[in-house]
Amino acid sequence: MKKNIASARITTQSSKLLKELNDSLPFDKLLYAEDIQGSLAHAFMLASKGIISNEDYALIEKGLKEILAEIEDGTFSLDRDDEDIHMAIEGYLTSKIGDAGKRLHTARSRNDQVALDFRLYVQKNSLLLAKLLLKNIKTLVDIASKHTTTLLPGMTHLQHAQPINFGYHMMAYASMFKRDYERFMSSYERNNYSPLGCAALAGTPHLIDRDMTANRLGFKEPTLNCLDTVSDRDFALEILFNIATMMMHISRLSEELILWSSSEFGWITLDDRHATGSSIMPQKKNPDIPELLRGKTGRVNGNLIGLLTVMKGLPLAYNKDMQEDKEGVFDSVKTATLSLKVLNEMMSLMRVNSENMQKACMVGHLSATDLADYLVKKLGMPFRDAYHTVGNLVNLAQEAGVDISELTLEQLRSIEPQIDEDIVGILDNRNSMNARTSKGGTATIRVSEQIDTIKEWLDKQGEYK
After folding, report:
1. What is the dihedral of CA 437, 440, 446, 448, to 10 degrees?
2. Res. 465 pLDDT band, cuts 50 70 90
């Protein structure tokens, strides 16, 4: 029977079914770099504290670096009998350097080792996704900068509501992505504490230096409580939540892109590189990328709910259930990374059909609220009375088959005789859009301010060129 380096108590061969259920190497091999990074820091600390000899440390360091190179160039295959990446690397190291390899695990448990490797992975990818979000924000700002005067109908309930400009609409998504970025960065700061040295759950009697390893690994400091640390997967749940929220925003944008690219809207045209044809209908151009992005949102939502469900009933400290923490995170990170890259490329090459947007503003009586505000300000009419008066004017426009902005002064006065000639300019959709000058509003001047604000913020992140 092959000796399991991680099991001294078990004396019989494990069931093949147990091995199949227990093996995590097929997916946790993704953590090989983090595992070696953590082991190098741990070995350095052990030697610095005199827990292992400098000679053993030199052999461990050389062996681990060789293994890293072998894994990355494909010389060493991780598809072997070991149950996880940690045992695979430790076992191979021992076969390379002998007893020195067996000393690497001194003052360490797989519990804190796994927590460390996984946290390093999450921290690294939180920064990666945050950086990709900055690129998407920049693209949205660039689009918005070109369209601060491009009219389109703002909607509620997917019904035409008030005239806005397309730049304003893009800045709404830039604002969402900014919050997403801030969530990733906040999580990074909150979780930037080292689990290494917590051992199984209670710390270790060896005179280790957790501050030293935390510093070498780029953490702010060690975690406070070891029992909590080896049980904690909040950092994994946070990245799953952050990704799910971000993908929800991407899905909302994707839904609008799908609608806007349809014949019924015709507001945008996606580049042919980001669409597909039909297997039977030669005229079709399908918006597959936004459809896939919309669909993948369900996938990452499922990963979040999956881990929440795994963790909800676990007693302290580590339980084998927690092996289910990684696959969903790996999948969500991969999905989110690709989604952000393709979204940025698609948006960069999207064509905006401004004329069609402008035409759409003549449907739905978008300046009706402006007329109600006019009656309040000009005539001193109570808003609720003005509201019903304008409702009657909308009905009149409907019967005449025109937009409310196209009603003649005579038609307007047939419902409200006190309306003056100056109403004509107020009902113009462009004037209506630009009248909304309150902070955060859609007036071109305010959208330009929003763009400048985000550009300044991007400057502080070091990404806006």
Report:
1. -170
2. very low
Distance CA 14, CA 83 (A): 12
User: What is the pTM assigned to this prediction?
Assistant: 0.92
pLDDT digits (tens, 9 = 90+) for 96-154: 999 999 999 999 999 999 999 999 999 999 999 999 999 999 999 999 999 999 999 99
Neighbours of 365 (CB within 10 A): 23
CA distance 404 to 424: 10
Angle at Cα 415 formed by Cα 410 and Cα 417, nearest 5°? 65
Q: Which residue matches tokens 């004396």?
A: 11
For residues 85 and 108, what is the distance between their CA atoms, to the nearest angstrom?
Answer: 16
| Cα angle, residue 197 at apex, residues 195 and 203 outer, rounded to 5° | 105
**Whether the Cβ atoms of residue 137 and residue 82 lie closer than 8 Å to each other:** no
Residue 286 burial class via C-beta count within 10 angstroms: exposed 0-12, middle 13-18, buried 19 and up: middle
Residues contacting residue 451 through CB under 8 Å, at least 6 positions apart: 141, 144, 145, 148, 167, 171
Residue 407, burial from CB neighbour count under 10 angstroms (0-12, 13-18, 19+): buried
Query: How far is the CA of 55 from the CAs of 96, 209, 240, in angstroms?
Result: 15, 20, 42
At 14 the pLDDT is 66
Which residue shows structure tokens 């304003």?
Answer: 168
CA 2 centroid distance within chain = 44
Q: Which two tokens stand for residue 48?
A: 């610095």
Positive or negative CA dihedral for 310, 327, 116, 222? negative
Q: Which residue has the higher pLDDT, 160 or 77?
A: 160
Alpha carbon 161 to chain centroid distance?
Answer: 30
- pLDDT, tens digit, for every residue of 28-40? 899 999 999 999 9
- Nearest one of 419, 372, 392, 364 to 155, comparing CA atoms: 364
201 is written with which tokens? 């759950």
The residues annotated with a catalytic role in the active site are 157, 278
Predicted pLDDT at 280 = 83
Residues 6+ apart with CB under 8 A from 210: 194, 196, 197, 222
| Cα distance between the two ends of the chain | 61
Provide the residue type at 114 as one letter: V
C-alpha pair distances (Å), 237 with each of 99, 118, 181, 312, 357? 38, 12, 16, 12, 41
Beta bridge partners of 159: 156
pLDDT averaged over the chain? 93
Strands (E), 293-415: 351-352
d(CA 117, CA 106): 17
